[in-house]
C-alpha cells in the first residue's frame, strides 16, 4: 500500500498567517492527490483534487501544488473558519490511502 | 439538496453483524460510484470499499475483505454495507461517500454523509 505522511501533525497558527502543510507519498503518485478539510465532529470536505485543482466554492486562499511524491497545501491568509484537521489522500493506486492528518490550532 | 444520509450504526458484540444504509438524494445516484470510508475514534481516515454505479466493479480494503459486503439499489437511491464477523478494531464512524465518476477508478470523494457510529464491544 502507498504510505502517505503528513507534516507537521499539529500546527499552531494565528488568523492572517500563511500556512503550509506537506504530504509525502511512499512512491510516485503523479498528481493523483486530494486534500480534505475536517472540522471537529463533522465529515471531511473535499478542497482540492489532482494536486492543485480547487473544488467549486472553495476560497481562493487555499492552493495545492506538487507532483510525484511531495505535495503542499497552502492557506495564504488563515481565517477563523480554517482551524480544522487537513487530510491528504492518494488515488492513483488501490487501496486509496490517507495521511494521518494535520491539526491546525 | 444534494446529500447522503447514513443509518444503522449501533453497539454490537464482537463476532456480530450489522447493516449500514446510506440514502442519497439530489443527484442521479446511478451515475456515481459510491464508497464507505471509516474513521476510528481520534484516528485518521480509512477507505473501506467502493462499488461502481452499475455494481459491475467492487473493491475492498484488505482489512475487511471476506467480512464486509457492499451493495446498492439504484431504484431506491440507497447504498449498503453488510458487516459480519465484527471485531473491536472495526469500531469507527462510517461515512458514505460519493466518487464523481460512474467507474471505480482514480477514486476521490466529493460528497460525504454525516457518518454513523459503529461500536464493537462486549
Structural notes for this entry:
The complex is a heterodimer of chains A (105) and B (122). Chain A is mostly beta strands and 105 residues long. In chain A, 0% of the residues lie in helices and 47% in strands. Chain A has strands at 4-7, 10-11, 19-25, 33-38, 45-49, 53-54, 62-67, 70-75, 85-90, 97-98, 102-104. In chain A, a hairpin with a 6-residue loop joins strand 9 (85-90) and strand 10. Chain A is globular, with a radius of gyration of 13 Å. Chain A starts with a strand and ends with a strand. The mean pLDDT of chain A is 97. With 122 residues, chain B is an all-beta fold. Chain B has no helices and eleven strands. Chain B has strands spanning 3-7, 11-12, 18-25, 33-39, 45-51, 58-60, 68-73, 78-83, 92-99, 111-112, 116-120. In chain B, the strands form two sheets. In chain B, strands 2, 4, 5, 6, 9, 10 and 11 form a seven-stranded mixed sheet that branches. In chain B, strand 7 (68-73) and strand 8 form a beta hairpin. Classes of the chains: A mainly beta (105), B mainly beta (122).
Structural class by sheet pairing and helices of chain B: mainly beta
Overall pLDDT level of chain A: 97
Secondary-structure element order of chain A, as H and E?
Answer: EEEEEEEEEEE
How far the N terminus sits from the C terminus of chain B, by CA atoms, comes to 39 Å
Percent in strands of chain B: over 45%
Q: What oligomeric state is this?
A: heterodimer
Report the radius of gyration of chain A as a whole number of Å: 13 Å
Q: Beta-strand level of the residues of chain A, as a percent range?
A: over 45%
Biggest sheet of chain A: strands, sense, closure?
Answer: 7 strands, mixed
Runs of chain A in which pLDDT lies below 50 for 5 or more consecutive residues are none
**Overall mean pLDDT of chain B:** 96
Secondary-structure element series of chain B: EEEEEEEEEEE
Helix content of chain A: under 10%
Helix coverage percent of chain B: under 10%
Distance between the termini of chain A: 30 Å
Structural class of chain A: mainly beta
Estimated radius of gyration of chain B: 13 Å
The strand count of chain A comes to 11
> What is the overall shape of chain B?
globular
